[in-house]
Amino acid sequence: MSDAIKMREAHFPGRAPIDAYGNGGFRFADMSNRGSIICVPSGIYGLEMKTPVPTMEDIKHVLDEADKIEVFLVGTGENLLRLPENLRMVLRKKHISTDTMSTGAAVRTFNVLLAEDRAVAALLYAVE
Q1: In this prediction, what percent of the chain has a pLDDT beyond 70?
Q2: Whole-prediction pTM value?
Q3: Number of H helices, E strands in the chain
C-alpha cells in the first residue's frame, strides 16, 4: 500500500447557492473552496484556472451536461472579459446562451436563477 496522498477533484454533489465569495475562494452548502469553481446540474467542481478567461478544458462539465443547461454565466474576476469566440460558438451550437460578467455579478445572477429553478450553470473565477 502506498503512503502517497491522493488528491481528488473537489466536488460538491448537488446544486447550491453561493453564500460568499472573495479571499480567493467561495462558500456554499456549509463548505468552502479555495480557487475557482464551476457550478453545473451535477454539482459544484473546483477548477485550476490560470487566467480569468476560461479554456475549453475549463468548460468540459458544461459541455458534458449541455442537455440540462440553458444559461451559462461566466464570472471573470473583477473585470469584465470577453469569452473566446471558439467557446461561444461551441456553446451556441449546444443551444446554451452565455453571459460574461464580473464574478460578483455572476454569483448574484446565479443565485437568483437557481432560486427560480432555471437550467443555469456558472463558471466563477476566484477573486481576492
Answers
A1: 92
A2: 0.90
A3: 3, 9
